Amino acid sequence: MDTLKESPSPCSSRHNSPRPAPCEMPATVGIEAVLDQLKIKAMKMGFEFNIMVVGQSGLGKSTMVNTLFKSKVWKSALPGPGVPTPQTLQLHSVSHVIEEKGLKLKLTVTDTPGFGDQINNDKCWEPILGYINEQYEQYLQEEILITRQRHIPDTRVHCCVYFVPPTGHCLRPLDIEFLQRLCQTVNVVPVIARADSLTIEEREAFRSRIQKDLKSHCIDVYPQKRFDEDPNDKILNSKIRERIPFAVVGADQEHVVNGRCVLGRKTNWGIIEVENMAHCEFPLLRDLLIRSHLQDLKDITHNIHYENYRVVRLNESHQLPRGPGWVNLAPVSLASTSAGQGWTYHS
């Protein structure tokens, strides 16, 4: 009698089959894509950076700006023979768009020809401080409009590079008087101009004297110690503060040294390479202004210096101009404030 072979039942095959793997949720939700979005937006809009250079004529301010951005941003206009020196300080600004790897930077450079060149330099800093505050005022007036622009043009000075003459002694009374006022209004980065006129020993001694002058007169230059927040920033900024003021040399002409093309100044005894740390500290200044602290300079300008100006002006709000489209920020009585009438619109 033949043995009947039982066919496997569907239930038995179901039990013998491997169990499906549990559903795995993705490890990330894509938050890192925000960085790509910010990058794309920044590439479209570009950046604005406004820098002011202050110092006596002949210290290489125009050359230094051209060296920083490797472009003919500023053309020097030194008076020729027989041309008298300007009797008053005059401020000149020029804007230049620099593009690198698809990113655009609108650079505005403000020069101060005539500063400290006169016999009587009494209050020669007032036009400079007036110009800085004027840019704050323009931004404030745009900000308090009821119908504001989507992007308010930013002409505020983000950094002021102060050129100290290479005397080898110490800061002059003019430097101290001006820096005390300037540091309360804008980020100030002092530099020793034309440092190639000093020996290495003279340079270090001069730097040490300047640092003592800054400390004894409570001149808080950038980067300000009180604004250090991140531990890594504290370490980096401490190293920078040890080297300030930077001993710099500017040059916008190229020379061939050992088969490579370098920016430098040619002398009878050789070529001073501006990007060689053994020759000067220009790379430190460039890294500070562009590569590591550019956004921080803008943030401190907006959150600290402009905010201080804004608070003072709003406390003096009765002096703000009134007209179509402006908010009346004049002080109001407690009764009107409680009724929700803290401001009125003038048409």
Automatic annotation (TrEMBL):
Septins polymerize into heterooligomeric protein complexes that form filaments, and associate with cellular membranes, actin filaments, and microtubules. GTPase activity is required for filament formation. Interacts with SEPTIN2, SEPTIN6, SEPTIN7, SEPTIN11 and SEPTIN14. Interacts with RTKN and ARHGEF18. It comes from the Eukaryota. The keyword Transmembrane helix does not apply. Belongs to the TRAFAC class TrmE-Era-EngA-EngB-Septin-like GTPase superfamily. Septin GTPase family. Filament-forming cytoskeletal GTPase. May play a role in cytokinesis. GO terms for molecular function: GTP binding. Residues 45-316 form the Septin-type G domain. Keywords: Cell cycle, Cell division, Cytoplasm, Cytoskeleton, GTP-binding, Nucleotide-binding. It is found in: Cytoplasm, Cytoskeleton. It holds the Pfam family Septin. GO terms for cellular component: cytoskeleton. This is Septin-9. Residues 1-24 are annotated as: Disordered. GO terms for biological process: cell division. PANTHER family: SEPTIN.
